[in-house]
Amino acid sequence: MKDEFGGENMDFKDYFPIWDKLNEKQRENLLRVTKFRKVKAGTLLHDGGPSCLGLILVKTGQLRAYILSDEGREVTVSRFFERDICMFSVSCAMPDMQFDIMIETEKDTECWILPACMYKNLMDESLAVANYTSSLISRHLSELMWLMKQIMWDRFDKRLAKFLLEESILEEKRELKITHEKIANHMGSAREVVTRMLKYFQDDGMVRLTRGSIEILSEEKLNQIIGE
Predict the structure, then answer these.
(1) Within 40-126, where are the H helices?
(2) For residue 189, what are the contacts with CB-CB under 8 A and spacing of at least 6?
(3) What value does the mean pLDDT of the chain take?
(4) 207 in helix, strand or coil?
(5) Which of 41, 127, 174, 226 is a Cys-bridge partner for 216, taking CB atoms 3.0 to 4.6 Å apart?
(6) Contact 55, 27 (CB under 8 A)
(7) CA geometry: angle at 50 spanning 44 and 56, to 5°?
(8) Beta bridge partners of 58
(9) Do 180 and 186 meet the contact criterion of CB atoms below 8 Å apart?
């Protein structure tokens, strides 16, 4: 089944986690209105405004959800990978849950977009969908609370060490192609603060800094900072 983006919805059922909880009519309607998209890295999918994109189900790639302050400072709220579902862009279907959160692609991404009105109808019709949605929202809110705790109570060097190690695991390499500005955007900090701390890490033999990349030299030392 092809849509206007030229994608295939035929394997959607293998990725939608509660497909077997839907009846035949609901399945047919879902496949009919769901759009498959191939999106280049760096694309803004949702601008955080009142418009409602719909629920996003990731097939391949990587999404980043972030908030933007009045001063233009970013902080990453969550990241989404293969088989993850993002609810931040469907909040208009749930009037009591409003998220002013931006969503962008960090890597070339393939995903399905489930229109908000369709998903709201599914929630109204199906207890299984409603329960699953509640579980997703609770997970999103837990991530937000965890983020607030990190920002409010953890030292910046500890947060930065965590970020570098997690990014290394995610990319499966010790040399990270990432700028200080990008790290600052993830962490809700200023580029100058990130640069100053990275230089401290370099002086202590934890990382090697080159233009546009950071090589992790000592995971042990970074873990020592996290464990302090």
Answers:
(1) 116-125
(2) 73, 156, 183
(3) 86
(4) strand
(5) 174
(6) no
(7) 50
(8) 111
(9) no
